[in-house]
Amino acid sequence: MPTLSLFGSPWLHHPRCGSTSDEARALGRAGKPHGTVVTADEQSNGRGRQGRSWFSPPGDNLYLSLLLRPQLQPRDVPLLTLCAGLAVEAAALDLLRSAGLPASEDRLVLKWPNDLLAKTSVGLRKVAGILTEMTLSGSRCDFVIVGVGVNVSGLQFPDGVPATSLRQLLGPQTPPLSVHDFAVTLLSHFEPLYQRFVSDGSSWVIDAFSTRAHLTAAGQRLHVQTASGTISGDSLGIDRDGALLIRRDDGYVERLLSGDVSLGTASL
Ligand code: BTN
Which has the least CB within 10 A, 9, 96, 164, 222? Predict the structure, then answer.
């Protein structure tokens, strides 16, 4: 098992809570240190992006929130989501490869800005989601909560939720996987990515993320659902701030900081 040097001290675990991100935010307000981790076996009010709920049944999956106190400008904070996505994917690949899944790398794809998807026989299915929330102090970033939900071992998902788990990818005969081990592996990947991001800046994050985010590669025809409606056009890729650039049919280039991407007519 990897050892952690930056994150996980303290690490608070709840058998059940509303949302690990709410717990972590309260700890942030109470002055707990950079790197504090909150996990739970179950969440009664797991939250996703855009006010959605996050399916959080007991035991099988990872619900983790990390408290960070980064020396970053608020405008750079969304890039932490891309860093976290790279860490989640790296941990998932470690697990799938060590379990002997052939061509593991080809089975996973990052979806801008915050999802890890898997290619399955019934299409793309969500394995993990990231919710990054910032608390400001005046115009300065006081702390950030990176909330990560990963379907590690669960085999059941609500009707209509296009999700799968790492265990399901390995085959339903696979015994339950250790959620705690997965959390440690994820954090061990996130530590060096985080350190490199704060010391070297963002351009390598964008390059690394773009390499694995095939769905938003330049030239793809996309529909992006945003708070102000759906935008359709051709992707120009991700810019240096982590925003998705879309050239609409009238030639206007939209710069999107968040949204739900779908490809052609298919919903992802
Ligand atoms: C999304 O895909 O919309 C993001 C989902 C993030 C879910 C995680 S689970 C741990 C943390 N606690 C929450 O309430 N949400 C995040």
Answer: 9
Query: What mean pLDDT do residues 161-165 have?
Result: 95
99 alpha carbon – ligand 1 mean position (Å)? 26
Q: Give the global pTM.
A: 0.95
- Cα Rg of the chain, angstroms: 18
Distance 219 CA to ligand 1 centre (A): 30
Whether residues 134 and 257 fall in one domain? no
178-203 in b/e form (b: 16+ CB < 10 A) is ebeebbbbbbbbbbebbeebeeeebe
Ligand 1 centroid to Cα of residue 62, in Å, is: 10
In a domain, residue 268? The reply is no
The per-residue pLDDT for range 234-260, each reduced to its tens digit, is 999 999 999 999 999 999 999 999 999
Domain that holds residue 108: 11-212
Domain membership of residue 161 (yes or no) is yes
Same domain, yes or no: 90 and 31: yes
Q: pLDDT tens digit string along 41-62? A: 999 999 999 889 999 999 999 9
Q: Whose CA is nearest to atom 10 of ligand 1?
A: 63
Q: Quick one: how far is CA 76 from the chain centroid?
A: 16
How far apart are alpha carbons 149 and 103 in whole angstroms?
A: 24
